Automatic annotation (TrEMBL):
The keyword Cell membrane does not apply. Keywords: Lyase, Metal-binding, Zinc. This is CENP-V/GFA domain-containing protein. It holds the Pfam family GFA. Residues 5-150 form the CENP-V/GFA domain.
């Protein structure tokens, strides 16, 4: 049974809802993009069902950013990500990430979720994943008890995690 997530930016110019079958903040991405956009430790992702995303308020306040994967010697992008990040153009709060590679999923940032409060805890059988450590400087700590990966965990990623989550709650 999906859970309705309600989210917003810090200045409340943008509000949205999205349904999630996996409303647990299970993964912290510590790639160079998430750390620059989200803060020192990175960003925490949740998986939502793309078709259920509804902008309740402030669609005109949303800006999209397609990050560079690599830069040349003049700091010009050489390669762009396949995903786009949506954020509030007023307060810069990150809202979600979307990629055409996985059109059925949208990835709201846990930091933007207001309800339910609190979000469900990670089940005892599960671990927080710290991913994309290959582009993370060594001074950025690994969260206590996290399972770390230089890239992504084995399997298909969040879709496999979703199946595991369903086994925990069913």
């Amino acid at each position: 049974m999906p859970v309705l997530l309600e989210g917003s930016c810090h200045c409340r110019a943008v509000k949205y809802t999205v349904e999630s079958n996996t409303p647990i903040p299970y993964q912290i991405c510590q790639c160079s993009i998430c750390r620059k956009a989200g803060g020192y430790m990175g960003s925490v992702n949740i998986m939502g069902n793309t078709k259920t995303l509804k902008i309740v308020k402030g669609e005109d306040q949303i800006k999209k950013y397609i990050a560079a994967m690599e830069f040349d010697e003049n700091d010009k992008p050489k390669e762009l990500c396949k995903s786009e990040r949506s954020f509030c153009k007023n307060c810069s709060s990150m809202l979600w990430v979307y990629s055409d590679e996985w059109p059925e999923w949208i990835y709201p940032f846990a930091s933007s979720i207001d309800k339910p409060d609190p979000l469900p805890a990670i089940p005892k059988e599960a671990k927080l994943f710290a991913i994309k450590r290959d582009s993370c400087p060594s001074h950025v700590p690994i969260p206590e008890g996290a399972e770390c990966y230089d890239g992504y965990p084995p399997g298909k990623g969040i879709e496999d995690w979703h199946k595991t989550y369903k086994a925990w709650v069913d």
